[in-house]
Amino acid sequence: MMPTGCFQRSPLLGFLALTFAWSWACWWLSPAVKLQSPWLATMLMFAGGFGPSVAAVVVVWCTRGRVGLHAWFSRYLTRNVGWGWIALAFFAPLVVVLIAAGLHLALGGTLAPSSAVEHVPLAVMNLLAVLLLGGPLGEEFGWRGYALPTLQVRMSWRLASLVLGLVWGVWHLPLLFISDTVQAHMTLVHFLVSAVAMSVIFAWLALHTGGSVAVALVLHTAINFWPTIVPVLPTPQNSRPYALVVLIQVLLAAGLLVCRTEPV
Hints:
Distance between the termini: 33 Å
Largest sheet: none
Order of helices and strands: HHHHHHHHHH
Shape: globular
Number of helices: 10
Low-confidence stretches: none
Helix content: over 70%
Structural class: mainly alpha
Number of strands: 0
C-alpha cells in the first residue's frame, strides 16, 4: 500500500522544504560545534551536502511507495548511455578550466602550481572522494533525478533548468559564509550565475541521455575535481581565473539554450 503523508499534496515543495531544512541546519550547526567537536563539525558539513538526495528518496518513498522507489532508482541508473556521453561529461569541464587558465595566463596573470603533478595517487583518490563526499552523490539524485524531471512536467527544459539553477545556487548560500569552504572565496553574483549556467548544461545533457543520473554524477564530479588539478578556483588574491570559468559556462549555456534540441 502506497504511504500517505505531508508530501502527497505537493511533492516538489515538500522536496525543496526538506532539502533546505536538512542542509541548512547541518551547515549552520557545523561552525557552532567546530571548537568543541571538530569531527562532528566535519560530519555535519558532509551530511548537509546529502540534503537533496535524502529528500528525493523520502519524497519518492512517501508518494510512490517502496516499489515506486525501486523503479525510480532503476530508471535513472540503468539507462544504456554511450561511453561518448560519459567522456563528454568527464572531460568537458577540463576543457573549460584549461581555456580559462590559458586566457588568464595570456592576460599576464599567474597560477599557483598544481599539487596534483607531484601527488598523482593522491589526486586519483581525491577523485573518488569528490564523487562520494564532495557533492555529486549527495545532490544529483535530488536535483537532476527528481527536481528536474518534475519541473519538466510543468514547463520546458529550458525554463526548468533556469529555475532549478537559481534554486540550486540559493541552496548553497550558507557555504559562502563558512570559512574553509570553496565557496567562501566566491562572490554571490559569480556563484549564482555559475549555478544557473551549469544547471542549463546539466539539463541539456539529461535530454540526450534519457535523464541519466549516472551521467549527472560524472559531470558533477568532473566540475568539482578538475579545478583541484588546474588551479582556477578563486583566492583572496586572485579571482580572475574563476571569473573566466563562469564566463565560459555562461557562453556555453547560452548556446545550448538557443540551439534547437529535443529530448531523446
